[in-house]
Amino acid sequence: MSEFCYLCGKPMGDSRASGDHVVPVALIARNQPKARGFDYAGKLPTHEECNNRFGPETYMVNALELLEFLAGNNGHSTYQHRTRPEILIQAWDASKLPNFTERVLSFFKLIDVRESDAAAWSEPEFFRDKSRTNPTRDALHVALSVLTKSAAALLIKRKIHTVPPTWQVYAIPYSGATDALDFDHLLGDTKPFEAGVKVWLHQLDGGPDWLVLYRAKSVLVYLIFVFGHHNALATLKEHFPEADIHEFVGTAINDLLTVGWHKV
Q1: Is it the case that residue 1 has pLDDT exceeding 60?
Q2: What does the pLDDT read at residue 56?
Q3: 93 is in which domain, residue-wise?
Q4: 211 and 247 part of one domain
Q5: Do 95 and 169 fall within a single domain?
Q6: How far apart (Å, rounded) are the C-alpha atoms in residues 245 and 231?
Q7: Mean of the pLDDT values across residues 136-140?
Q8: CA distance 160 to 15
Q9: Which among 137, 156, 171 is the end of a domain?
Q10: What is the tens place of the pLDDT at every residue in 73-87?
Q11: Of 137, 154, 179, which residue constitutes the final position of a domain?
Q12: Does 152 lie in the same domain as 130?
């Protein structure tokens, strides 16, 4: 396994190796590797170019902050434009998101109007050249891709010990998770990687498929990694009939950046 890049699935060859942390360091506030009561996942080899393609994982932390903020009831309100009802305006208290720099606002396609005249951004023309956004959806997709990448790395390093030739993953993400959510009684005692960061790995019915529950701060993601041929989607829809189920299919984890997710 050490001779292959887990992100593209190709041999390392003579390329310059870059060790990628299995659990993103952006999620870990403590010193690594050893800390009493906490787990450590280590690194997996990657091509330097593959590792850099995922960009700054700090955006994932911003996405988690944003989801936690939007899941609460304080600091944000949604308004319908009085003359153009198809325009919905979501107003936020910027003081609740102190880490959102201009760069972060731009990444999530958010508009800073703190220095603008209220009369100007109240007119429909102000929105004419602006991209329509869904902050909850966009933040969830950012967090989902990085956490799925980490879950895949954990599976490779600890369970399947190989880089699969293809990936099929179903995901059911939830925002608003808390430390009170714990699955040790169902899936076995598991140490956290950090306060609020915990992952459970469970082989389904002794077959080739794996369930990964990934809790990162306020987000909990149910991930099914399908390596067999049974209809995992039908099973998910049976057990989670009201949930939004997302599917990723690709030849490499890197495809999360291009193919992405779609609802099924």
Answers
A1: no
A2: 62
A3: 59-137
A4: yes
A5: no
A6: 14
A7: 86
A8: 24
A9: 137
A10: 899 998 888 888 888
A11: 137
A12: no
Residues 127 and 148 placed together within one structural domain of the fold: no
Q: Check residue 217 and give left, alpha or beta (phi > 0: left; psi -120 to 50: alpha).
A: left
- 105 with 153, same domain: the answer is no
Does residue 179 have a pLDDT over 80?
A: no
Residue 84: predicted pLDDT: 84
- Is 230 contained in some domain? yes
For residues 87 and 124, the answer to whether their CB atoms sit within 8 Å is yes
In a domain, 54, yes or no: no
